[in-house]
């Protein structure tokens, strides 16, 4: 049962070809922590199919009448191919990411998707990480890449490396909003020691 612990709200964006664990584990961990979270399709369809042909049903779409990015406190990008390029090609989402970052609001990306943040100028002068195949893109756009870190938080921006680091990525979001005690509670519940 969901027990809300904060008024902060997170949107995880789903594009065709997303990476399943990187998306769903974030939603799961935030749910466990009591952080409201919506699964948001970037298309007009609520059904979105992953890179490995797993279809999930989102509860919102950016095409919904009245959808407003400003309903959220953090925007989260899973990775995956072609998920990441599809996210990158979504102009309304990219515009919102820049606006959020400039306003000091939460922005998070994992795997290949930190490269989107880098290309938008969001990682310039910030510590970050990404999938090893995309760390060079982050560095080329002015990020201080920390290749050995599972997840990196620099102010309002959180980045991570990939599927195996997805839980740590999600826990960094929990820590951002609720602190270490909430992280410890989730870790105990999921047997992460």
From TrEMBL:
CDD domains: GATase1_DJ-1. It comes from the Bacteria. Residues 8-175 form the DJ-1/PfpI domain. InterPro entries: Class_I_gatase-like, DJ-1, DJ-1/PfpI, Prot/Nucl_acid_deglycase. It holds the Pfam family DJ-1_PfpI. This is DJ-1 family glyoxalase III.
